[in-house]
Design brief:
Elements: H1 7-23, E1 31-35, H2 40-55, E2 61-68, H3 76-85, E3 90-94, H4 97-104, H5 111-129, E4 134-136, H6 141-155, E5 164-166, E6 173-175, H7 183-192, H8 210-225, H9 229-237
Parallel strand pairs: 1-2, 1-4, 2-3, 4-6
Antiparallel strand pairs: 5-6
Helix pairs in contact: 1-2, 2-7, 6-8, 6-9
Length: 253
């Protein structure tokens, strides 16, 4: 099945290509592990990177990496079939994360945060095992902005995500090529191409991360007055004026 090459496809491909160029995300000889969960974001990222790969001025390799956390009902077989059908090199990694979370999670603590930490650790290990010097994650423009607002409102820090950063293991570079792509565009793209989206089957799916949902609602409200508010906030992340902030560590002398 070929992707539908319409205006949306061209817009997303152009945005990803621009992000790669702006932040030097992909270089000659890179072997990139793409985290594929079965969600709309990771499917879109993998397919767009594969499309760009065909005409890229540099040569790079892609390998899809899937983590099965062991949640009952998770259809990793559907994901594997899609990857085989499209000829993607891939690896499916079963884990006992569900049992670990049930045992280790403190009452009242975030289900999502411990799950994400466990998955990230396995992804770093798989990247090294399969010779991937980079790991591509499907965070999009909305994720960057929502994380910025969450940190300001609830943590008290000016921090979001980086398009490219060295992981804690000191070996793997994490890249986020969808930084310029809005979530609504990914939703349309995924539906148009009929990607077989798979639910994570986490016990709190659809109920967790209420604070992030509040940020989505806030942004939707602000967009009604200013349709460019998300793009403006993203530009702000690249337009920092340290001397107008309160962080004493940024001040000279």
């Amino acid at each position: 099945m070929a992707l539908i090459e319409d205006k949306l496809y061209k817009r997303i491909k152009s945005a990803v290509g621009r992000a790669i160029a702006d932040y030097n995300l992909i270089q000659e000889g890179d072997r990139i592990g793409v985290a594929v969960s079965g969600g709309k974001d990771s499917y879109s990222l993998l397919h767009i990177l594969a499309e760009l790969q065909r005409r890229a001025p540099v040569k790079y390799e892609l390998m899809a990496l899937n983590i099965d956390s062991g949640y009952p009902g998770y259809r990793s077989d559907v994901i594997a079939e899609h990857l085989r059908e499209h000829g993607f090199a891939h690896h499916m990694e079963p884990t006992d994360h569900f049992e670990i979370i049930k045992e280790k999670r403190r009452p009242g603590s975030s289900y999502c945060s411990i799950c994400a930490r466990l998955k990230r650790g396995v992804l770093y290990t798989l990247a090294q095992r399969f010779g991937c010097n980079k790991l591509a994650l499907g965070h999009h423009l909305d994720d960057f902005i929502e994380t910025l607002l969450l940190n300001q409102f609830f943590v008290g820090s000016l921090k979001a995500m980086a398009p490219s950063m060295l992981a804690d293991n000191g070996e793997t570079t994490v890249i986020r090529p969808l930084v310029y792509v809005e979530e609504r565009e990914i939703i349309q793209f995924s539906r148009a191409n009929r990607f077989p989206v798979v639910c994570c089957c986490c016990p709190v799916c659809g109920k967790a991360d209420q604070q992030r949902k509040r940020m989505k609602g806030l942004l939707s409200e602000l967009e009604r007055e200013n349709p460019s508010v998300k793009r403006s906030l993203l530009r702000a992340l690249a337009n920092v004026h340290p001397r107008h902030l309160l962080d004493r560590g940024l001040r000279k002398g």
